[in-house]
Amino acid sequence: MDKIYVFGHKKPDTDSVTSSIAVSYLKNQLGFVTEPRILGNINPETKFVLSYFHIKEPAYLNDVKLQLKDINYHKGYYLVDTDSIYDSYMFMTEKGITGLPIVRKDKKFCGLITIKNLANEFVTGDFHLLDTSYRNLLKVLNGEEVLRYDEEIKGELLVASYRSTTFLDNIILNSNMILIVGDRHSIIEYAIASGVKMLVIVGDGSIKEEHLQLAKEKKVNIIKTSYDTLHVTKLITLSNYIRTIISSSRPIWFDQYDYLDDFLEVSRKLKHTNYPVLNKKKECLGLIRSSDVHEKKRKQVILVDHNEKGQSVDGIEDAEIVEIIDHHNLGNLTTNNPVNFRSMAVGSTNTIVLRLYKENHIPVPKEIAGLMLSGILSDTLLFQSPTTTDTDRQAAEELAKIAEVSIFDYGIAMLKAGTSLEGKTKEEILYNDFKVFKVEDHTIGVGQIFTMNFEEIKKDMDSYIALLNQVATANDYYLVTLFVTDIIENGSYVLYSDRAKDVLERAFMIEDIEQGHYFKEVVSRKKQIIPYLLEAIERR
Questions:
Q1: pTM (2 d.p.)
Q2: Is the pLDDT of residue 32 over 80?
Q3: Which alpha helices (DSSP H) does 5-150 contain, by range?
Q4: How big is the chain by its Cα radius of gyration, in Å?
Q5: What is the pLDDT of residues 358-384, one digit of tens each?
Q6: Cβ distance 239 to 84 under 8 Å?
Q7: How many domains does the chain have?
Q8: Coil, strand, or helix at residue 460?
Q9: CATH number (domain holding residue 249)
């Protein structure tokens, strides 16, 4: 069963991280194989929550783009460099391919053989030299082992094509020769006495017992084959090791984790047909061709706490979304197939997740209950947010009992851990919880930070405003705002880029708004800020 990744949005907050973990646990109990992931650095509040309930931080997920490992390429398509040229031809013919990776015995990639290489060898190869193994010769010549003393067979090929007297009078043999001969006993005796490397006896020719004994004394390798001389001479050099015809130039290869888009781009430029696929150890895994990319296995994902493409993982369009669990307005994600989509108008994704546990009759473990409670308290701002529903409160009470914590005492401790600005840069404060929204042809960026000390930001307000303008210009955002929310006061201060002034005035019906303006009882970006900004831009 394939692994399913469960994750929230790119700016992970406590609700998205905890709901990812809770959903992953639920799905695993139901027999799926899932793993929670995060798409960015978690904030201090979430760190506090995970530490409090002794839960390991999920691993980072860079993207879900299609990689070569997701393609149904020709896995296991390679031969060892000590296999024969004949083996490579038969393999390519059988598999219907025009190229074949070659590896050493340790599977490390060492070259690529193509049909063009083989054709060149068949026509212009050196037909006088042999560099192979006894095993290869037996296989290619369909031979019978008579005497074997050397596994490595390397030397000069010679065919006993003259009459016996001519051969004996004119040919000098040595230990570096492989002789192809029929049942010409005088030549066989002469060859053995000369200590040749090997005799290949064709046509099922016989060998006298005394010659066999002499061959044992001289340690001469002997093979018999039913093939005739012509057939053997055509085949024997095809028993040579594949490595003897590998080009010294290194062909282009790809790592199994390379992205499909990068492979296609290189393939279009080079216009080659065959590319080896390797792992990190440079071990060959198989062969990929540009025609193979149509058969792919998309990564499976479950999205929680978001359904906007811009807020999701890079490459989401390449993935198979199998489920979405969210409490936000509908975004712009599209899917290739129908999916389970659970959306509710509640204050936290974890409120929905608790309902899923109940529907599937899965008990909530103590530590998971603590995480889910944390997500609810975080997103509802300890029930101060207008997004809070009675369903959220009921869920929190139920989870607090399982987790054995006080809602108020634990909630205050958690929120305090998350609102400290100590040691944070201005960029970190802006991007701590920064979301991008699209309206008509415009893109806007809205950041939100929770703190109990706005004065710390106010004293350096000009620098924050300069940063907002810089971010707007660099990213071509129509406007950028930072809402500084004080949970205790139950309101938010706003800093904004220059172009945002007019939009904010129209959105909230304020004349001549100033930087640092305080919005009483405005704490929910989703419900009390974004709808008004989007409407003001639409009716401009």
A1: 0.72
A2: yes
A3: 14-29, 44-52, 85-95, 115-124, 134-140
A4: 37
A5: 999 999 999 999 999 999 999 998 998
A6: yes
A7: 4
A8: coil
A9: 3.10.580.10
